[in-house]
User: Which sequence fits this backbone?
């Protein structure tokens, strides 16, 4: 049983993680259920405001939040940024934090729950397929390009963790995005296929067989099977081999928990995930590219690999946050401040 729980946890590597003594951000105390420090609690004239919206994408209703700058005037034109959330995360967590901070710098920002996840529609729940996640990003661009005050010619993209990998894929062909940035990029395909830090190379065929059987069971009308849904004790979490998992559990289950956020995903999703890679055709990105990652993140290897392969643009930078782990880029004030300052500089130059 312990071995199965541990394997499920390894399969759950959908984010990047590192907390420590994170201050709690209780979604229940926020009227918009935002789960991050400094979150908007009330819309006020002359301030950054949040606007819950919904729209249709491929027949599903997508739930999103739009953040507008202080003194937003729909008659004026503002640059905008699409923000893609981590795997397992929702718009009310780190994606919302960065969207709000970008709005403080004068950008209109949108972040939406992925289809089949969070408050967005789709059955079965928690399907996690690259095609859907990439389409989610295109869909956010569709919506925000028509939002009052948005200058569609100045549209940027920011992907966080798993959303970063999917953003790299979306930006390969969607030339509406004039500048692309990632924070703690997580290559979901590589990790689902090879294991985190390529630690499961010897079980690839076994896990593909399990995913195939799960798909067959669904097709036959049977129960939908899930991976990554490991309910671990504090003692078990402490014994996990990577910062990504240890700190991720603390962030997502304790300090910044949200009811729409979950590690689990349909096991059949692995059929799509394990044959996909965020760096396939990455040379098609011909726009300015900024990749931000913690210098101490055990996920750094994925940003370094993608950065080296992104040969289609000469305007690129890998910016390391000195001392940060993966999840610390989600909430630690000094790292968030440094990342936002770098993003504001980057988008200010490129948008």
Assistant:
């Amino acid at each position: 049983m312990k071995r199965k729980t541990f394997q499920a946890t390894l399969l759950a590597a959908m984010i990047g993680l590192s907390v420590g003594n994170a201050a709690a951000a209780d979604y229940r105390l926020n009227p918009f259920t935002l789960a991050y420090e400094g979150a908007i609690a009330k819309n006020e004239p002359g301030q950054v405001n949040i606007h819950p919206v919904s729209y249709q994408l491929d027949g599903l209703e997508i739930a999103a939040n739009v953040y507008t700058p202080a003194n937003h005037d729909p008659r004026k034109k503002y640059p905008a940024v699409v923000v893609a959330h981590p795997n397992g995360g929702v718009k009310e967590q780190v994606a919302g934090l960065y969207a709000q901070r970008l709005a403080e710098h004068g950008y209109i920002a949108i972040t939406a729950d992925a289809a089949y996840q969070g408050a967005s529609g789709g059955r079965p729940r928690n399907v996690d397929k690259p095609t859907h996640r990439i389409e989610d990003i295109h869909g956010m661009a569709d919506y925000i390009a028509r939002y009052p005050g948005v200058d569609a010619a100045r549209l940027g993209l920011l992907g966080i963790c798993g959303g970063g990998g999917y953003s790299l894929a979306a930006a390969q062909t969607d030339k509406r995005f004039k500048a692309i940035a990632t924070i703690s990029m997580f290559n979901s395909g590589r990790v689902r296929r090879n294991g985190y830090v390529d630690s499961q190379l010897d079980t690839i065929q076994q896990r593909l067989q399990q995913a195939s059987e799960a798909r067959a069971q669904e097709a036959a009308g049977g129960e939908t099977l899930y991976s990554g849904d490991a309910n671990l004790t504090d003692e078990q979490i402490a014994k996990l081999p990577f910062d990504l998992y240890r700190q991720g559990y603390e962030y997502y289950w304790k300090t910044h928990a949200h009811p729409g956020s979950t590690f689990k995903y349909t096991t059949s999703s692995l059929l799509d995930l394990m044959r996909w890679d965020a760096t396939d055709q990455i040379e098609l990105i011909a726009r300015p590219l900024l990749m931000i990652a913690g210098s101490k993140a055990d996920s750094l290897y994925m940003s370094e690999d993608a950065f080296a392969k992104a040969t289609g643009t000469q305007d690129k930078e890998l910016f390391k946050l000195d001392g940060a782990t993966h999840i610390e880029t989600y909430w630690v004030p000094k790292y968030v401040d440094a990342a936002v300052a770098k993003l504001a500089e980057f988008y200010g130059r490129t948008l």
